[in-house]
Amino acid sequence: MMEGGYKKYDKFHLWDFVGEQKAKGLVKHMGFSFHAGPQLLDRLLKEHPEVDFVQLQINYADWENPSVTARANYEVARKHGKSIVVMEPVKGGNLANPPAAVKRLLDEYHPDMSYASWAIRFVASLDGIITVLSGMSNTQQMEDNLSYMKKFQPLNEAEQKIIQEAQRILGNSSTIPCTACHYCTEGCPKKIPIPEIFSAMNKQLGNGQMAEAVSDYRKATSLTGKASECINCRQCERICPQHLGITDYLKQCVDALEK
Ligand code: SF4
Ligand code: SF4
């Protein structure tokens, strides 16, 4: 559900359709994934009290991010008594490899725990969470997730303070807050691998790894469009759930990684 598309759910009677399936017992719990602000969420939940759960983007880096409004959306959902499924708890993998200053902070308290564990435990510690959707790409990541989710311990007071400090550091970080969802790439007429380019750029912005950033950029664009081939059609910006100024970021990448 996004600001630009939610009306089609009324137009095509999708609420009624899902309600009918629920009445027949074919659907047990009804909910929707949401990529907009708290006002629209509040309105939808008032209009549709039959909704059981909402799927929200929540992670500690975006908790107060004005373009994601994680905290505000979470509070609206809870005000309406809805359960929450969390998406992007590790922010598209960014919080599994945070900037060096955050790594130092987390290592100091838990040298043996993964950076992803902090991100997942942060959201799992909130009230009303029924599922944390963590995109895992290999068995090792799944084993890591299971190691702290099987006998789950919410963040303690000291850990909450550490997360607040990490949020402060990330608030000052100039990395590009792309979650690598890839929604933007399919319609790009120049086939520009936007999230891979931003991931390369973040190596330079977050950790000052210029050589790695250039190398990753070359690999990402060896068979596809380069950042400099962008024609500013902005289809990517219209669809980006993070509302990123993609074309401006791409210009930054051209200057840093192509020249
Ligand atoms: S604005 Fe650039 S990156 Fe975005 S879809 Fe158009 S060509 Fe692709
Ligand atoms: S749609 Fe936005 S957040 Fe998703 S990959 Fe593209 S730039 Fe990143």
Count the E strands: 4
Please report the distance between the alpha carbons of the first and last residues: 39 Å
Low-confidence stretches: none
Structural class: alpha/beta
| Secondary-structure element pattern, one letter each | HHEHEHEHHEHHHHHH
Question: Could you walk me through the main structural features you see in this protein, from its secondary elements to its overall organization?
Answer:
It is globular and about 60 Å long. The protein contains 12 helices and 4 strands; from the N terminus they run ααβαβαβααβαααααα. 32% of the residues are buried. It starts with 6 loop residues before the first helix and ends with a helix. It has helices at residues 7-11, 14-23, 38-47, 70-79, 100-109, 115-124, 139-149, 157-171, 194-207, 210-221, 235-239, 246-258, and strands at 31-34, 53-57, 83-87, 129-132. The protein is 48% helix and 7% strand. The protein has a 4-stranded parallel beta sheet with strand order 1-2-3-4, with helices on one face. The protein is of the alpha/beta class. Residues 188-190, 192, 194, 230-236, 246-247 line the site of one iron/sulfur cluster. Residues 178-184, 194-195, 240, 242, 244, 246 line the site of one iron/sulfur cluster.
